[in-house]
Amino acid sequence: MLNQLIKFEVGKSYWVRSTCDYNCIWNFTITGRSKSGKSVTFKKMGDDFNHEKRCKIKIYKSFTYGDCEYIKPMGDFSMSPILTADDVIKE
């Protein structure tokens, strides 16, 4: 995996843990990517959040594990969850 870019894939689900509550886990499904590959659209699974949202993709550079795409699905604030492409839900 070294020096490979791990990307979000359309149709796959990913998880992220809350910064404040260890028992709180959110699941998101990627519903699309832009043609330029600079943003993704996604849906939050569960609750009453049935509309799609779009976020700009950023890249986490790592010398140890390889590069990985990430987004901030709930906004950009100090305790915002960071959803990474390597946290895919295995079904």
**Class computed from helices, strands and strand pairing:** mainly beta
Query: Can you count the beta strands?
Result: 8
User: Main sheet?
Assistant: 4 strands, mixed
Tell me the Rg in angstroms. 13 Å
Approximate shape: globular
Number of helices: 0
Give the ordered list of helices and strands. EEEEEEEE
Report helical residue fraction.
Answer: under 10%
What share of the residues does DSSP label as strand, in percent?
35-45%
Please indicate the count of domains.
1
**CA distance, first residue to last residue:** 21 Å
Determine the mean pLDDT: 87
Indicate the low-confidence ranges by residue numbers: none
Q: Could you name the key traits of this structure?
A:
single chain; 91 residues; mainly beta; four-stranded mixed β-sheet; four-stranded antiparallel β-sheet; 8 strands; 40% strand; globular
Commentary on this structure:
There is one protein chain. About 0% of the residues lie in helices and about 40% in strands. The model has no long low-confidence stretch (mean pLDDT about 85). It is globular, with a radius of gyration of 13 Å. Strands 1, 6, 7 and 8 form a 4-stranded mixed β-sheet that branches. The two termini are about 20 Å apart. The chain has one domain. The chain is mostly beta strands and about 90 residues long. It contains no helices and 8 strands.
